[in-house]
Design a protein that fits this description.
Layout: E1 5-14, E2 17-27, E3 32-37, H1 43-50, E4 56-63, E5 66-67, H2 73-78, E6 79-82, H3 86-89, H4 96-106, H5 112-122, H6 139-151, E7 157-161, H7 169-186, E8 189-193, H8 197-203, E9 206-211, E10 214-220, H9 221-226, H10 232-240
Parallel strand pairs: 3-8, 3-9, 6-7, 7-8
Antiparallel strand pairs: 1-2, 1-4, 4-5, 9-10
Helix pairs in contact: 5-6, 6-7
The structure holds adenosine-5'-triphosphate and magnesium ion.
């Protein structure tokens, strides 16, 4: 099978500082792949390099087996990004309608009415939200609009940079459920960054651990949950996330927002990292 995304020995340099050092990665079509690592380890830089927003010094990136050149319109129809902060990523003085219409205009798509309605329905907002300004929305509703805006061009890959870490726990669970639902409905491929190992373990089949711009190791979510890791750094990450709660009920629907990530300390089924190792930033 041709990989959805292939990254080969990627280096990103900001002047003399190497933010990514020979990072390689393959993500299969329909897979949800996680990136974890402490702050500054290069997770966002990797996503930004894929969309052409970070200076690539060497290495290559391919989409569906084709090496990328300039990130043109065709690329942006296939790859969309959702950022952590829905307050920063949506213009506060634009209506939801305008926010959703803009990418359709840029890409010259004609069936705009139908696409806007479908996108709002898909993210559980409905047409009642269509003419609200984004400053009139809650954080969770804003993030739903950001997801709708990313989906409206029908991409095949979503790059998700901490998509729920600005939200409180119950809203976080709703938005994660929504993302999982659209991934399954549309057969999307996800590359997802999160500080929260429980979120990554639930949302992703595999993941890569990063430190100082380097790939430390790749694991399956099951390896992570079972503590089958080979590198000390990953053990420290697990230790630092003491209270990592494995999600119990993966069955959910959009209407029924079953929390998938329990607040730490409640109804824990599996916990990690209570061995008293030094706490390092996750
Ligand atoms: N535009 C830039 N110019 C200079 N250095 C940068 C730039 N963007 C990122 N960096 C540096 O690259 C390194 C990796 O940053 P990056 O944002 O990728 O980290 P991260 O893993 O996403 O961290 P966090 O979890 O805090 O979001 C950091 O040391 C950061 O300071
Ligand atoms: Mg980041």
């Amino acid at each position: 099978m041709t990989s959805a995304l292939t990254i080969t020995r990627l280096e990103v340099a900001f002047n003399s500082f190497r933010a990514l050092k020979r990072v390689s990665l393959e993500v299969q079509p329909g897979e949800s792949f996680g990136l974890v690592g402490e702050s500054g380890s290069g997770k966002s830089t990797l996503l930004r390099a894929i969309v052409g927003l970070a200076p690539i010094a060497s290495g290559r990136i391919a989409l569906n087996g084709r090496w990328l050149g300039r990130r043109d319109r065709h690329f942006h129809r296939r790859v969309q990004m959702v950022f952590q902060d829905p307050y920063g990523s949506l213009h506060p003085r634009q209506t939801v309608d305008r926010l959703l219409r803009e990418p359709l205009l840029i890409h010259g798509l004609t069936d705009r009415e139908a696409r806007i309605r479908r996108a709002l329905d898909e993210v559980g907002l409905g047409s009642g939200f269509r003419f609200r300004y984004s400053h009139q929305l809650s954080g969770g509703q804003r993030q739903r609009v950001a997801i709708a805006r990313a989906l409206i061009l029908e991409p095949s890959i979503l790059l998700l940079d901490e998509p729920t870490s600005a939200l409180d726990a119950s809203v976080q669970a709703e938005v994660l459920n929504l993302l999982e639902q659209v991934r399954l409905d549309r057969g999307l491929t996800f590359l997802m960054v999160s500080h929260d190992l429980a979120v990554i373990a639930h949302m992703c089949g595999r993941l890569m651990v990063m430190q100082n711009g380097e790939a430390v190791e790749q694991l399956t979510a099951q390896d992570l949950v079972s503590g089958r890791v080979t590198q000390d750094y990953t053990r420290r990450l697990l230790a630092a996330s003491g209270g990592f709660v494995r999600i119990r009920n993966p069955e959910h629907s959009r209407d029924q927002a079953e929390p998938i990530v329990k607040p730490r300390g409640e109804n824990d089924e599996t916990r990690f990292g209570r061995g008293g190792l030094e706490r390092s930033p996750v």
